[in-house]
């Protein structure tokens, strides 16, 4: 799968926010596991009662049944998730990478409450630009302060529900079944700081192939991968079809949170005009970044104002406007 990655590092002053925690629940399971099937009703009831507070991913393993269809479809990436925690039995339920829950309703509630009680200093926002089963995910991560870990990675995992079950699950369906990690097994490096709050934006393409699009969710989370542990600092979860872009349009024309960024011409020879639509506060900050995150220029713009500037070097750049907490982006291609 072809991946486009853009990291934009913005230093924002006088900004405060309280990030809402979404807890990552990973359920390691297998179609030949009787205890997995027995615990399924309790787990499903817990997940249903905490909708909006959980990101759910169910990796499958190769035992007791080596013919588990979910495992066979993507063994490498699921084995990686298993290896992080040393999973050696199923069912194994991990909360936020730190707590292995006991197999009871009370155990699930206790693990969840423990994580919800931990202050959260990372906000994750996700936009999905989709056209007929393919698209681009834009992930915005805002660290309010130093998260204390030196090897952070962002993960974006597509899961599918409503898959006809086999083995013990033959009379039911597989839910939130692991399909694909969009950044590859080990995720994408994320570096915050040294000034805070700090924002990193990452883009990745996807193709849903033969999966049932209406049954797909996306789980995004930032996890520590250093020797100090495997804590998930925060997560995001929603239907993959919860589109914030416009179906059928090119990515360059799509803008987040209803802010309009029109670039003309695009591609260009370096002489570019940018027009902004209706702004939340009448004015906005317009910044241009290259793919390394270096700011080429920034300026204040107003409603429906045309800004003209010139880029000297061939390459891909990104225009980003911010106004009253809203954000709009557009990709710029320069060919000289």
How helical, in percent, are the residues? 10-25%
Major β-sheet profile: 5 strands, antiparallel
Look up the CATH topology of the largest domain.
Answer: Immunoglobulin-like
- pLDDT averaged residue by residue: 85
| Strand fraction | 35-45%
Overall CATH architecture of the largest domain: Sandwich
Number of helices: 4
How many structural units, i.e. domains?
2
Q: Given the C-alpha coordinates, what overall shape results?
A: elongated
CATH superfamily of the largest domain: Immunoglobulins
How far apart are the termini?
29 Å
Short précis:
The protein is mainly β. 13% of the residues lie in helices and 40% in strands.
Write a structural description.
- The chain is 13% helix and 40% strand.
- It is mainly beta and 336 residues long.
- It has 2 domains: 10-239, Sandwich (Immunoglobulin-like); 251-334, Immunoglobulin-like (Sandwich), CATH 2.60.40.
- The strands form 6 sheets. Strands 8, 11, 12, 14 and 15 form a 5-stranded antiparallel sheet that branches. A 4-stranded antiparallel sheet has the order 1-13-7-6, with no helix packed on it. Strands 3-2-4-5 form a 4-stranded mixed sheet.
- Residues 1-16 and 243-257 have low confidence and may be disordered.
Write the layout of secondary structure elements.
Elements: E1 10-11, E2 23-28, H1 34-49, E3 54-57, H2 69-73, H3 75-85, E4 92-95, E5 99-100, H4 105-116, E6 122-131, E7 134-143, E8 152-160, E9 163-164, E10 173-174, E11 177-181, E12 188-190, E13 198-207, E14 216-224, E15 232-239, E16 261-264, E17 271-276, E18 283-290, E19 295-302, E20 306-310, E21 315-323, E22 326-334
Parallel strand pairs: 2-3
Antiparallel strand pairs: 1-13, 2-4, 4-5, 6-7, 7-13, 8-11, 8-12, 8-14, 9-10, 14-15, 16-17, 17-20, 18-19, 18-21, 21-22
């Amino acid at each position: 799968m072809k991946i486009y990655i853009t990291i934009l590092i913005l230093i924002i002053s006088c900004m405060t926010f309280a990030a809402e925690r979404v807890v990552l629940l990973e359920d390691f399971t297998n179609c030949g596991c009787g205890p997995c099937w027995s615990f399924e009703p309790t787990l499903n009831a817990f997940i249903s009662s905490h909708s909006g507070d959980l990101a759910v991913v169910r990796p499958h393993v190769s035992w007791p049944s080596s013919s588990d269809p979910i495992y066979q479809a993507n063994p490498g990436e699921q084995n990686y998730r298993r290896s992080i925690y040393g999973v050696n039995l199923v069912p194994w339920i991990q909360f936020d990478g730190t707590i292995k829950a006991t197999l009871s309703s009370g155990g699930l509630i206790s693990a969840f409450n423990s994580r919800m009680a931990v202050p959260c200093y990372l906000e994750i926002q996700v936009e999905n630009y989709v056209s007929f089963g393919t698209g681009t995910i834009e992930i915005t991560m805002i660290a309010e302060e130093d998260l204390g870990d030196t090897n952070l990675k962002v993960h974006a995992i597509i899961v599918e529900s409503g898959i006809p079950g086999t083995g013990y699950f033959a009379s039911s369906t597989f839910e939130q079944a692991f399909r694909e990690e969009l950044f590859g097994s080990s995720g994408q490096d994320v570096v915050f700081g040294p000034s805070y709050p700090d924002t990193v934006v990452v883009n990745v393409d996807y193709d849903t192939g033969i999966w049932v699009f209406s049954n797909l969710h996306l789980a995004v989370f930032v996890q520590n991968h250093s020797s100090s542990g495997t804590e998930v600092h925060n997560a995001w979860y929603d239907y993959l079809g919860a589109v914030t872009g416009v179906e059928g349009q090119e990515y360059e024309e799509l803008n987040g949170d209803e802010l309009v960024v029109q670039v003309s011409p695009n591609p260009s020879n370096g002489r570019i005009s940018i027009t902004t639509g209706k702004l939340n506060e009448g004015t906005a900050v317009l910044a241009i970044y290259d793919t390394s995150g270096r700011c080429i220029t920034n300026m204040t713009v107003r409603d429906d104002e045309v800004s003209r500037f010139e880029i000297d070097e061939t390459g891909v750049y990104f225009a980003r406007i911010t106004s009253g907490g809203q954000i709009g982006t557009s990709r710029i291609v320069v060919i000289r």
